[in-house]
Backbone:
């Protein structure tokens, strides 16, 4: 679907008529999600045959990846059967033939060299043994394949001043990661880390803090949030041009090392 990212959610029959109309107009109504989309999707540029969205949730990243890479088959995996069923229905209604979803545990995916690109967005903070989850993603990639991973940062700027440990969100086993910690764990899991940096500049963090105050990171006060979301979305958009030295998110691009060439290939 053309327009703002996440408009596919307007095809979800479980949502109210108001929600569907609102999403059709403005796209996915979650400011933090929209910030992550703007930060993560550019890191997936390239040509791929198969893409895994590990821990796909509502499916928005998988939908956007399917549109951005129409020549690739996109698979979204999530542990919640109800979400998976809903995501598959939305993909079908949106005519995204190259996008499908299945239930699975990101720590026990069972894929072996199946994907050229794996995307993991704000999932590792939910997993107790995060290095083992990273190893599972490593095994899912073909040699030379790319991993794009985003996590909450360990700290965030609260409103505009000072630092504090990131939000205590239901389901998180840790508040987030410092950039060097995430890089070290990825390397322990076998990845070569090509790039990493913080995300969420001042404007993005400010609008995300307001979102948290209203929703509690648990979709509370939906009508109040719907009223302020357009302003938050517009303001946070300009944060995309920032390059924070530290922030409330961490983005890393890593690779599963390619196999060494054999004697004949080297010749």
Residues:
């Amino acid at each position: 679907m053309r327009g703002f990212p996440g408009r596919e959610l307007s095809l979800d029959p479980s949502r109210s008529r108001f929600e569907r109309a609102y999403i059709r107009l403005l796209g996915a109504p979650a400011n933090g999600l929209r910030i992550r989309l703007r930060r993560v999707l550019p890191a997936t540029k390239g040509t791929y045959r198969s893409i895994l969205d590990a821990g796909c949730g509502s499916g928005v990243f998988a939908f956007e990846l399917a549109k951005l890479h129409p020549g690739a088959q996109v698979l979204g995996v999530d542990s919640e059967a109800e979400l998976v069923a809903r995501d598959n229905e939305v993909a079908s209604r949106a005519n995204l033939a190259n996008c499908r979803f299945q239930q699975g545990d990101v720590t026990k995916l069972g894929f072996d060299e199946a994907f050229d690109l794996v995307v993991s967005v704000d999932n590792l903070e939910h997993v107790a043994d995060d290095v083992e989850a990273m190893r599972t993603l490593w095994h899912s990639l073909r040699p030379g394949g790319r991993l794009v991973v985003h996590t909450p940062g360990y700290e965030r700027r609260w409103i505009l001043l000072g630092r504090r440990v990131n939000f205590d969100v239901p389901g998180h086993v840790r508040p987030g990661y410092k950039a060097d910690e995430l890089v070290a764990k990825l390397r322990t899991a076998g990845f070569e880390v090509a790039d990493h940096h913080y995300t969420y500049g001042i404007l993005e963090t400010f609008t995300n803090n307001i979102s948290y105050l209203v929703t509690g990171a648990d979709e509370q006060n939906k009508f109040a949030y719907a009223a302020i979301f357009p302003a938050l979305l517009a303001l946070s958009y300009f944060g995309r041009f920032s390059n924070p030295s530290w922030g409330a998110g961490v983005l890393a691009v890593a690779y599963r090392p390619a196999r060494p060439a054999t004697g004949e290939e080297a010749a």
Q: What stands out?
A: Strands lie at 50-54, 73-78, 99-103, 115-121, 141-152, 155-158, 161-165, 192-199, 249-255. The chain has nine helices and nine strands.
